[in-house]
Recover the amino acids of this structure.
């Protein structure tokens, strides 16, 4: 029954959601379910029954005329399908492949940013510890900053390339039409992807949970050693980088399937909420980064200034939840 419901949701997606249209959709769904049960009772398989029911469904224009409902182009200037792109199976696969590639680029970019911080910490502490023999503590800070900015520059390049590629599929964020067979294929591919998605999430969560362990080990084995603490902190950040990479690559691919199937966060009733959250995020996160760089370079508060990120993340999550709740009630 879920397949029939999904098919009808897709067919009626571009039509105005009036009481008349909702009632028509409900009537057609009841009729299709009754026909489906009859075919199942006659010994048809589930796929055969669904195929027959859908093939007898008819054209949406014919149904509108049969029920005496004016077509969209009779009510206004646009037909319900005008300007609505048609997504073929090849285009869907191309989009999935592009999102997968974009995920790897963004994940690698985030990893380079974290690696830059690691290099800054390692070089600064290493030169500070050895300054008794080599008066190069200040040089160590500069070398660390140089390495960090080189890695961040590489990350920014990856972000820009990923953004340019993602812009090519901007039309996917707007209503589109997809044939039933293509949608079924995407649902099957999404189902096959779920084990990989779950494994990546589990590994990422485990890495996040275990990332403080190197700090505990360094405290037990070499308490008071700056080099040991630096190594442990570097390991913690690298574990976070690996977890973030897994979250991004898995999340963007999952997002692509949801976008194609118009489910989850990309269901029609949630698209408006997503735009609000994205707009707020595009302002908040650059502002937070600017504040962090200011207090770091001007006041030298790289630590504990970094706490601005987790605090903002928590507050932004609360904001997104509130917007989503308000949108669902409206």
């Amino acid at each position: 029954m879920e397949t029939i419901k999904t098919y009808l949701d897709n067919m009626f997606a571009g039509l105005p959601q009036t009481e008349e249209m909702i009632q028509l959709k409900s009537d057609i769904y009841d009729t299709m379910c009754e026909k489906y049960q009859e075919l199942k009772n006659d010994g048809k398989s589930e796929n055969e029954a669904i195929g027959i029911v859908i093939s007898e469904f008819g054209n949406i224009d014919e149904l509108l005329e049969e029920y005496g409902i004016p077509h969209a182009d009779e009510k206004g200037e646009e037909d319900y399908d005008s300007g609505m792109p048609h997504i073929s199976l090849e285009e869907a696969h191309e989009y999935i492949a592009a999102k997968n590639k974009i995920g790897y680029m963004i994940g690698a970019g985030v990893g380079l940013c974290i690696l830059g911080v690691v290099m800054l910490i390692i070089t600064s502490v290493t030169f500070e510890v050895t300054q008794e023999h080599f008066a190069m503590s200040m040089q160590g800070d500069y070398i660390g900053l140089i390495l960090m900015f080189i890695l961040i520059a590489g990350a920014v390049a990856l972000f820009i390339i990923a953004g340019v590629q993602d812009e090519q599929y901007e039309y996917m964020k707007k209503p589109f039409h997809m044939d039933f067979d293509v949608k079924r294929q995407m649902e099957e591919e999404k189902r096959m992807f779920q084990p990989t998605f779950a494994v990546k999430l589990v590994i990422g969560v485990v890495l996040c949970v275990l990332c403080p362990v190197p700090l505990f080990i360094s405290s037990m084995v070499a308490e008071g050693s700056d080099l040991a603490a630096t190594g442990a902190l570097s390991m913690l950040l690298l574990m976070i980088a690996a977890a973030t990479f897994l979250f991004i690559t898995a999340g963007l691919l999952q997002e692509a399937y949801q976008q194609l199937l118009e489910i989850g966060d990309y269901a029609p009733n949630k698209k408006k909420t997503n735009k609000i959250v994205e707009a707020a995020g595009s302002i908040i996160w650059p502002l937070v980064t600017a504040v962090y760089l200011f207090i770091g370079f001007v006041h030298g508060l790289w630590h504990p200034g970094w706490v601005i990120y987790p605090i903002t993340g928590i507050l932004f999550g609360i904001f997104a939840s509130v917007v989503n709740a308000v949108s669902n009630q409206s």
